[in-house]
Design goal:
243 residues, alpha/beta, Rossmann fold, 37% strand, binds S-adenosylmethionine
C-alpha cells in the first residue's frame, strides 16, 4: 500500500544512505578535498569533528588520515545508521548551534549544505561561533553552504532512480524560492520485491544565506575566511582558519 504521509528523509536514514551511495555521491573525493584544505593550512592536523555528520560517510573516509574523528548530528535516526556503518567512530546527538564537547579539534567540518537548515543569520552566527569554539589555535573550519540567493535556480526539478541491495529508490524534487528560503518538495518511491512499493513526500525549507552572511559569521567568530570553488562542492566551501 502506498503511504503518502509526510516523513522526513532523515527519519528514513537507511534510504538516505542507500540513495546517495546509489546516486554516486563521491564521499571519498570530497573527503580528499577536505583533507587537502585542512592540511594545506595545518599540516599536523590530527583530529576532526564532523558536524551534521548524517550517516557518517565523510567520517568513514577521514578516519584513516586523522588519528581522531568524531561526529555529531541532530537526528538520532541518522546517527543510528552512522553507528552501524562506522561502529568504531564516537558519535553524539546535538544541535550545531549549541553542542558542547569538553575538548577541541584541529578541524571542524559541516558538509552537504546542512547549515541551510538554520532559519536566521543569528542562528548561522551561533553555529559558526560554536564551530570556532571547538577548534584549536591553528585549526580549520570548513562549511559547505547551501545555494546563495543569486545562484539558486527557482523551479529546479531533480530526478533520479537508483538500485541498491535489491531496493529501487526514485527521488523527484521540485524547488522554488519563497522569500529568503528555498522550498524543496521531494517525492520518494521505494520498491522492494518482497514487500512492494512505498511512497513518501518530504519538504525541505532551507535559507538562502548570501555569501556576505557566511563570511560575516566567520569573521564574528574571529576566523579568517576564504571562499573556495571546487567541482567536488557545487556551492563551494567556506574555509576558516583560527590564528
Ligand atoms: C543533507 S544531510 C548531510 C549529512 C552528511 N553531512 C552528508 O554529507 O551526507 C543534512 C544533515 O543535517 C542534519 N541537521 C539538520 N539541522 C541540524 C542542526 N541544527 N544541527 C545538527 N545537525 C542538523 C540532519 O539531521 C542531516 O543529517
Amino acid at each position: 500500500m502506498p503511504d503518502s504521509a509526510e516523513k522526513t528523509i532523515y527519519e528514513r536514514a537507511d534510504i538516505y544512505h542507500d540513495f546517495y551511495q546509489g546516486r554516486g555521491k563521491d564521499y571519498r573525493a570530497e573527503a580528499t578535498l577536505i583533507l587537502e584544505l585542512i592540511r594545506d593550512r595545518n599540516p599536523v592536523a590530527d583530529s576532526l569533528l564532523d558536524v551534521a555528520c548524517g550517516t557518517g560517510a565523510h567520517l568513514r573516509e577521514l578516519a584513516g588520515p586523522f588519528e581522531t574523528v568524531v561526529g555529531t548530528d541532530l537526528s538520532p535516526k541518522m546517527l543510528e545508521v552512522a553507528m552501524r556503518n562506522t561502529p568504531e567512530i564516537p558519535l553524539h546527538q546535538g544541535d550545531m548551534r549549541d553542542f558542547r564537547f569538553d575538548r577541541r579539534f584541529d578541524a571542524v567540518t559541516c558538509m552537504f549544505s546542512s547549515v541551510g537548515y538554520l532559519a536566521t543569520a543569528d542562528d548561522l552566527d551561533k553555529a559558526v561561533r560554536n564551530f570556532a569554539d571547538h577548534v584549536n589555535p591553528g585549526g580549520v573550519v570548513i562549511v559547505e553552504p547551501w545555494w546563495f540567493p543569486d545562484n539558486f535556480v527557482s523551479g529546479w526539478v531533480g530526478a533520479d532512480i537508483v538500485n541498491v541491495d535489491g531496493r529501487t529508490i526514485s527521488r523527484l524534487s521540485y524547488s522554488v524560492r519563497k522569500g529568503n528560503a528555498s522550498h524543496m518538495e521531494v517525492h520518494y518511491t521505494v520498491a522492494v520485491p518482497e514487500t512492494g512499493i512505498e511512497h513518501f513526500t518530504d519538504i525541505h525549507v532551507m535559507t538562502l544565506f548570501d555569501r556576505d552572511s557566511y563570511e560575516a559569521a566567520f569573521r564574528k567568530a574571529e576566523l579568517t575566511v576564504e571562499y573556495v570553488k571546487h567541482e567536488q562542492a557545487a556551492p563551494g566551501m567556506f574555509v576558516g582558519y583560527k590564528p
